[in-house]
């Protein structure tokens, strides 16, 4: 069975990706099994650049194919922020709910109670020889408070997807996995692996 390492320490992402890859015939591992592997500095200014950097660093360090994503929330009223800085928005010490509140406060500073927005995801699959394939997707919606829902993570409680009722945090995980930016990007990647299984071969 081919092995694929999920190059993230974000437990929410590992759960989502592992669920989506269940039944694919791939032995899915995560970085939780390699606690000592150094974290990759996400200093690229695009989602694609950061995803590629994480995938290549993990695949070359472990000698195994690695899948990395970089994602974030792009808010029109904030000129595209927080974008690639979504995980760090507002400073490193904030909780997810505090980040949501910070975002709503910044929208209010701009005289807005809501804004068109989208989650973007770039997904990179790297082989130990450094070869990379990339797929990207977006999930359109609206940012609006108050926070609603207990599922998901990050900005889900204040993101209303255009293709669902309520917020992303009110969706059950199969529904979110089917609709989301990460779900769409992974579906593209799984289709690619179906066409080119040699991408995971030794
Ligand atoms: P990354 O680990 O650099 O990709 O950080 C992505 C950040 O964007 C996360 O820490 C969240 O704040 C946000 N984000 C990405 N995907 C989602 C999602 O599906 N729901 C909510 N927030 C997300």
In short:
This protein has 202 residues and is of the alpha/beta class.
Could you give the count of β-strands?
A: 6
The largest pleated sheet is described as:
6 strands, mixed
Low-confidence stretches: none
- In percent terms, what proportion of residues is strand? 15-25%
Number of domains: 1
Structure keywords:
6-stranded mixed β-sheet; single chain; Maf protein; globular; alpha/beta; 202 residues
How is this structure best described in words?
This protein has 202 residues and is α/β, with parallel strands linked by helices. The chain has one domain (3-200): Maf protein, CATH 3.90.950. It contains 5 helices and 6 strands. Strands 2-1-3-4-5-6 form a 6-stranded mixed sheet. Strand 1 (3-6), helix 1 (11-21) and strand 2 form a beta-alpha-beta unit. 39% of the residues are buried. The mean pLDDT is 94. The structure holds inosinic acid.
Itemize the secondary structure elements and their pairings:
Layout: E1 3-6, H1 11-21, E2 27-30, H2 47-62, E3 66-75, H3 96-109, E4 114-126, E5 132-144, E6 159-161, H4 173-179, H5 181-195
Parallel strand pairs: 1-2, 1-3
Antiparallel strand pairs: 3-4, 4-5, 5-6
Helix pairs in contact: 1-5, 4-5
């Amino acid at each position: 069975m081919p092995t694929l390492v999920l190059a993230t320490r974000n437990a929410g992402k590992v759960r989502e990706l592992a669920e989506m890859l269940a039944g694919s015939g791939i032995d899915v591992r995560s970085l939780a099994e390699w606690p000592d592997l150094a974290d990759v500095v996400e200093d690229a200014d695009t989602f694609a650049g950061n995803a590629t950097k994480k995938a290549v660093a993990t695949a070359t360090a472990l000698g195994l194919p690695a899948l990395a994503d970089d994602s974030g929330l792009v808010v029109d009223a904030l000129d595209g922020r927080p974008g690639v800085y979504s995980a760090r928005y507002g400073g490193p010490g904030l909780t997810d709910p505090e980040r949501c509140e910070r975002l709503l406060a910044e929208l209010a500073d701009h005289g807005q109670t809501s804004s068109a927005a989208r989650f973007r995801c770039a997904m990179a699959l790297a082989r130990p020889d450094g070869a990379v394939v990339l797929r990207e997707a977006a999930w359109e919606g609206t940012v609006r408070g108050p926070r609603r829902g207990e599922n998901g993570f990050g900005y889900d409680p204040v993101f209303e997807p255009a293709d669902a009722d309520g917020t992303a945090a009110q969706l059950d995980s199969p529904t979110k996995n089917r609709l989301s930016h990460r779900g769409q990007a992974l579906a593209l990647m799984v289709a690619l692996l179906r066409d080119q299984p040699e991408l995971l071969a030794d």
